[in-house]
Amino acid sequence: MTGTPASGIAVVGVNHRTAPLEVRERFAHAAHEIPRSLERVLGAGAAGGVLLSTCNRTEFYLTDPSEAAAHAIWQLLSERLGDGREASVYGYATRDRDAVRHLYRVSAGLDSMILGESQIQGQVRQAWETSRAQAGPVLHRLFQTALLVGSRVRSETALGAGAASAPSAAVALASKIFGSLAGRVAVILGAGDVAELAAACLVDEGVTVTLVANRTYERAKIVAEQLGTRAATLDEVWEQFTTVDIVLCSTAAPHAVVTWERVAAPIRRRGGRQLCILDLAVPRDVEPAVGQLEHVFLYDIDDLQAVAAQGAEERRGVVPAAERIVDEELEQFWGWYDALKVVPVIREFRDRLEAVRAAELARALHQLEHLEPQDRERVEQLTHALLNKFLHPPTVALKEAASAGRAYALLDALRRLFGLERSP
Amino acid sequence: MIITFHLLALGCYGVATACALVPFVFGRPVPRFLSLGAPLAGAALHVVGVTQLTLVGLAPTLSVLALCLVALQVLSERVLRTAAVSLFTAPLAAGLVGLALLLGFGAGAEPSGGRNAWFILHVTLSVLGVALLALAFISAALYLLQFRELKTKRFGHVFRFFPPLERLDQLNRAALVAGFPILTLGVLLALGYAQRFASGMHLPPAQLVWGVFTWVVLGWAVWVRTLRGWSGRRGAFASIAGFAAVVLVYVALKLAAPGAERFL
Lengths: 424, 264
Known about the structure:
The complex is a heterodimer. Chain A has helices at about 20-25, 35-45, 65-80, 95-110, 120-130, 130-155, 165-180, 195-205, 215-225, 260-270, 300-315, 320-365, 375-405, 410-420; strands spanning about 10-15, 50-55, 55-65, 90-95, 185-190, 210-215, 230-235, 245-250, 275-280, 295-300. Chain A is an alpha/beta fold. Chain A folds into three domains: about 10-160, Beta Polymerase, domain 2 (2-Layer Sandwich); about 165-305, NAD(P)-binding Rossmann-like Domain (Rossmann fold, 3-Layer(aba) Sandwich), CATH 3.40.50; about 340-420, no CATH class. In chain A, a hairpin with a 3-residue loop joins strand 2 (about 50-55) and strand 3 (about 55-65). Mean pLDDT of chain A is about 85; it is low at about 1-5. Chain B is mainly alpha-helical. Chain B has two domains: about 1-110; about 115-265, no CATH class. Chain B is about 80% helix and about 0% strand. In chain B, helix 1 packs antiparallel against helix 2.
């Protein structure tokens, strides 16, 4: 950030590459907190702002920010961090084209922890809508185009195709068995973070979790409440193997808990319906023999990682194509933004010369009092025509240079030559 | 003109075959407008060619069968997103049109009882019934391949580009359950046509016996699928048995009484 109010676009924030989860979760803003935080930052000196806050990033996008605005952001985040810790050590700040490119890459999923994940596009839209009142015209346009970039990348490349993480691979595998997962029924064995994350992915796809079972009932109850279902101990779960479609296992047991003896009989009563068992535990929760049952599809963490690795590999292959789309859209936006910047300068330039014309005309007409009114009018028309003729070429040149993204030097020259106030 | 339209349709089905093979060769799907556009364009040209046929003889019947297969392929892709079906239907349609062209459409013999609505309905429903049974067979084959891929955890091109198991099972069931009554109705219309407009139906005993056998096998497949609740692999095997019976009996009867002037 430069000192004093500056023109341009800036992004200030942290993401999954610069800050650990423990820090990021303190920076995360709920939707209702966003307007107040933005108000504080804009109050320190910026024309407009949007706050994008997800579990993987907290980023302030600002137009015409002052140095004080950046300082206000770090102060605000440091307060959320607590213990007198300095937030700026986890963060970054970029300006202008780099800031625009950054947002476009974020929206396209190129900057995501899971390359190409699509959730971020909804989060970008949400951030824009939440900050709408404080965004200002430039950020409105920037976020609109960022969403367009995200859509283009997803429709014109295969960046969003396939599964690129273990939980999304679990969803992909279950989808290859059942097609749509909406209305499917699942039980969760284990109540750790991995089970919770994978269960959340399944719930997002429309799966109904009917039971969370764990060795310790209390922990199962916590996860069950988060998923809006009921908790049970492991002994209560085996009969569920007759009715459910998906079983997600992720207990911390040191040995297999889902054994042939426990589940073969309930599975045989399914009448030929498919059962998908996703074993995310290490060591494995499910005896491999269970997978030999005809209608059982058993996948362990290695299988899920194999699917995820395949998906990630496919996605990496299309990154150059996605980056090309980002570059194309960046050039378009920057052309628009540069053109926007020259308009006030051109106006000031014309006003300055118009004032000179008017003053010189008044002086000349004062000395030419013998002229008839029609002649005086003709002289005035002549000065207007001369001024317009003189101004036309530089005006066109400035607009063309702005569209081509190289207006800076011309604007600087204009400012110096004519002593204009506005900086380029 | 008939030949020209069939040649153009053959070209489109060739493109559709190439589109179906691309994902399995290059690992990337072709754009949907191309995978749907090629068979649709072929079918449109094909329809023009078929409307000029007399529908008597082997070549016209194969041509109509190819058209029905492509129509069902497009329909199943639109409704159930089962693009991989074209891996079988597109080359099969191209092969059938190619074979029809090789056999030649002849001078256009007239059916014995005249070319009326009964006759056209009989041919259309019979061929549509066979095409539906072929679709049931294809979806059953795709099901078994995808089942094996998922069970053995291979995660290759079949896993990526074949539809989910349940969708294939749905398609298999729908095609079999629709195909059997439509084929039966087509055969009944043939009997009615022979009684009303020709001098009755005089079938050789072998055709009658093996025809009834095929109908029983197909009826069994539909029965186990609908009333016994067979699904998944068992349902797929039942569909394969039903269609295999149709094909084997037809080939055997055709070998016993060769000739392209009649379909059967």
